[in-house]
């Protein structure tokens, strides 16, 4: 991803935004005035430039609004966020007519600013939908018989245009299967467009899928193509289809029936030649029985069903996947790939991986960054993996089990036969209460919250907003908890 460009003559503003964006794993580049930005754009050429431009409105040597106009002439699709003091709001609002993505009033709330910049990043990436070259397509690895069945199914569907429903647990690699189906289909030269229907608010999902006309709703400054139009001639991957709102299911059914739809606020039918591949971790038959999913849409999607096995069902693939992810993480970070001992690999192979392949990939990235030596040993593995054998001696393992585990029932059941995590928690509480302490609630609550937040941050590689979303808490809550608990993320 290209960097976020920050333009402000105030060093403190640049510093605060740089550090906050770095915590979100977003690259940055800073400038003092518009002249430097225009010079950099000239030097970068057509393929360079920023992913998003964040500019102050009043600076020595140039105006943010003038910069906006000049940047839009060169990069019409670039999202530009204008920062302004409250006294400049009138001019900032008028910037919308020049194509500003949004304005950010000063002084700003930092989490809200980062959230706005992330929205702009998502928008810029959404508008850059291009076909993934075949040599860059994500690899699918697996020698287990369950994965070989998946590979054979992909091969049989290679020349088909049929709709496919992929089922499997979260993190098992359903999007990789969808990409493989696209790559080996007659539509391989067309675009592959993916959208997670569970990750987009209900009131925005319709516009994301079908697009909207200018003025269709507040903030619709221009007409915009939806994912169906972007995927014309190719494949549209609808992830977590079971979470699609019921009223939108009706619209989707109509598109699948005749290929026509209307943009939000539009009056002319749009036709898109799109192959739909859907995926879900839910039991759609049960969702139909409960009235949460349309039965006719289910049958329309369920033409061919592919079930992707969980990682615990294909443990023989863990060593190969581990080495692959360690190699890839090293390439991404520009470091030498680390090796893993047989003992560490055996320990890793016992882990139940509730997050499946995605969790293994995150662990390998964590090891590439955090393991102190070039050879990974058992003691270098993440705490939740190292803690597995400790529960053999429950009396000694109570504190590590509560403090280090991710507090997932399946994980603890595997680590301590016959003892679930809540039973271990109960024993630790009894032990502390027997010491006649009066801070048991605070001690265990801090351990629980610290480990929960750290585990979420490790899976999102330190991105706080995404971690908060996965935990189901607000961004302000996770920021406050990190400060209160003294967590260094």
Layout of secondary structure:
Elements: E1 4-7, H1 11-23, E2 28-31, H2 34-44, E3 52-56, E4 58-59, E5 62-63, H3 64-74, E6 80-85, H4 89-94, E7 102-106, H5 110-126, H6 145-156, E8 164-167, H7 174-183, E9 192-196, H8 202-210, H9 227-230, E10 235-239, H10 246-258, E11 260-261, E12 270-271, E13 275-280, H11 284-289, H12 295-301, E14 304-307, H13 318-333, E15 339-340, H14 342-350, H15 356-370, E16 375-376, H16 383-386, H17 394-404, H18 409-415, H19 421-434, H20 440-459, H21 464-471, H22 475-485
Concise account of the structure shown:
This protein is an alpha/beta fold and 489 residues long. It is built from 22 helices and 16 strands.
Question: How would you characterize this protein structure?
Answer:
With 489 residues, the chain is an alpha/beta fold. The protein is built from 22 helices and 16 strands. Helix 2 packs parallel to helix 3 and helix 20 crosses helix 21. It is globular, with a radius of gyration of 25 Å.
Let me know the largest β-sheet: 5 strands, parallel
**Whole-angstrom Rg:** 25 Å
Strand order of the largest sheet: 2-1-3-6-7
The quaternary organization reads as single chain
Class from helix and strand fractions: alpha/beta
Could you name the ranges where pLDDT drops below 50 across 5 or more consecutive residues?
A: 129-138, 389-418
Q: If you average the pLDDT, what whole number results?
A: 81
The number of distinct helices, counting runs of at least 4 residues, comes to 22
Q: Can you say what the CATH homologous superfamily of the largest domain is?
A: P-loop containing nucleotide triphosphate hydrolases
CATH architecture classification of the largest domain: 3-Layer(aba) Sandwich
What is the total domain count?
3
Q: Provide the CATH topology of the largest domain.
A: Rossmann fold
